[in-house]
Design a protein that fits this description.
Blueprint (H helix, E strand, L loop, with lengths): L1 E5 L7 H9 L4 E8 L6 E9 L2 H11 L3 E2 L2 E2 L1 E4 L15
Antiparallel strand pairs: 1-3, 1-6, 2-3, 4-5
């Protein structure tokens, strides 16, 4: 299960997220997204958990939880549709 986490503190690390989510089950990957120019966290990331039910429990327990002074927003990650990515409408 792929989980989207936003409103992260700029000081939150991949290891912080792994520790947080590991309380609910096996975390297979963690990725905080960084700005390419400034190399600073953009305040969101993705967690992949091996079991759907563990991911759902993590979402339930961590959504709106205060972590490092920020209320996390935790939800199921949406699949990105690349078919229209970067395309321009012509009217």
């Amino acid at each position: 299960m792929n989980i989207y986490v936003s409103n992260l503190s700029f000081h939150t690390t991949d290891e912080d997220l792994k520790t947080m989510f590991s309380k609910f089950g096996e975390v297979t990957s963690v990725k905080i997204i960084f700005d390419k120019v400034t190399n600073r966290s953009r305040g969101f990331g993705f967690i992949e958990m091996s079991k759907e039910e563990e991911g759902q429990e993590a979402i339930k327990m961590l959504n709106n939880k205060d972590i490092q002074g920020r209320l996390l927003s935790v939800s199921v990650a949406k699949v990105r549709d690349n078919s229209s990515y970067g395309s321009k409408s012509r009217w």
